Amino acid sequence: MLNIFRSIPTQMDYKGQKLAEQIFQGIILVSAIIGFIYGYITEQFGWTVYIVMAGFALSCLLTLPPWPMYRRNPLKWLPVQELGTEEKKPADRKPKRHAKS
């Protein structure tokens, strides 16, 4: 059962994050404008809130899951390097000399 959840990709690349943010803001802005105009015409503030909430739900559905359109530009990671040399311990290092003023 857990293997099914582990096979679902959970990352977005940087360009995908930018695209998701633009889509999110665009949908929120358009739904707020439409909601305000409709609420003004009908003189019902409740309709404004409902339309903005619907826009928020739609934008969350489109931008929160890592859809394939947000994973088109994966990062190129460096290959793993072997540790060939031992790292010096802090006690093995020479103390730094400070310039006398």
Structure description:
The longest helix is centred in the N-terminal third of the chain and has 29 residues, at 14-42. Helix content is 52%, strand content 0%. With 101 residues, the protein is mainly alpha-helical. It contains three helices and no strands. It starts with a helix and ends in a 38-residue tail after the last helix.
Gyration radius, rounded: 26 Å
- What percent of the residues sit in helical stretches (DSSP H or I)? 40-55%
Profile the largest sheet: none
Structural class estimated from helices and strands: mainly alpha
Mean pLDDT: 86
- DSSP, total strands: 0
Number of H- or I-type helical stretches: 3
* Termini Cα gap: 68 Å
SSE sequence, one letter per element: HHH
Beta-strand content: under 5%
From the spread of the alpha carbons, the general shape counts as elongated
Point out poorly predicted stretches: none
Give the topology.
Elements: H1 2-6, H2 14-42, H3 45-63
Q: How would you briefly describe this protein structure?
A:
The protein has 101 residues and is mainly alpha-helical.
Keywords summarizing the entry:
101 residues; mainly alpha; elongated
